[in-house]
Amino acid sequence: MTQTPRIAFLSSPTEGAQGALAQLVARYGQVEPADADVICALGGDGFMLQTLHKHGSLGKPVYGMKLGTVGFLMNHYPEDGAETGPTLLERIAQAEPAVLRPLEMVASTESGASVGSLAYNEVSLLRQTRQAAQVRIDLNGQTRLDELVCDGVMVATPAGSTAYNYSAHGPILPLGSSVIALTPIAPFRPRRWRGALLKADTEVRFRILDHYKRPVSATADSHEVRDVVEVTIRESRDRTVTLLFDPEHNLEERILSEQFVV
Predict the structure, then answer these.
(1) Which of 35, 37, 45, 221 is the catalytic position?
(2) 80 counts as catalytic
(3) What is the pLDDT of residues 157-210, one digit of tens each?
(4) Cα(221)–Cα(204) distance, integer angstroms
(5) What CATH number does domain 7-100+240-258 carry, 3.40.50.10330, 3.40.190.10, 3.30.470.30, 1.10.3710.10?
(6) Confidence (pTM)
């Protein structure tokens, strides 16, 4: 007999998500994330990213349900919470895993501080003032672009390639492709440069030119570091998270479907 999984329910502060939390806890019980077999995140993609950043080190699979504005990383939540189809336990048992490997960012600032953070979607650099940023790009220690003049530039994972990266006209990447996207944001010079596809183990280093006159911030998902002078990004070698998706709406299918939206 299969043991019933212990579920830790986590919720965004919105009214709808809090209501769903109360219903699900009453129906299935509640445990702490460290004691759970599965973490169930209730909210939108933003809350899912918060959950991964806070609890990803536990190594627990995460099953999300959409109770927010954007839910690309979430599964469907039944209207009014009624389980007319499969129960939540059945959905979790049948779910397909998607293993994500985040990016590791190390940002050095004007003050000499070194700040590290993880990014499951992207690391983005953005100008802090009205003046365009000037950035040099090194790949695995070799300079590939002496000067990119732009509003910003980012490195995106396959899971994050449909988010900010896609809005900046970057490519959508298949899950499991072992590729990351290097995408400029409003590039001015070189005007025709549209970015690059890189092997996932590539070390990307951004050096900010004239950082006093043209300050730049770096953001890993939602963690912002201001006044950076150098940012190094590489795929994490030892950290992964597993998201669970209903078979009919798995993450690989969603990423593929996004490429055929007209």
Answers:
(1) 45
(2) no
(3) 999 999 999 999 999 998 888 999 999 999 999 988 999 999 999 999 999 999
(4) 17
(5) 3.40.50.10330
(6) 0.89
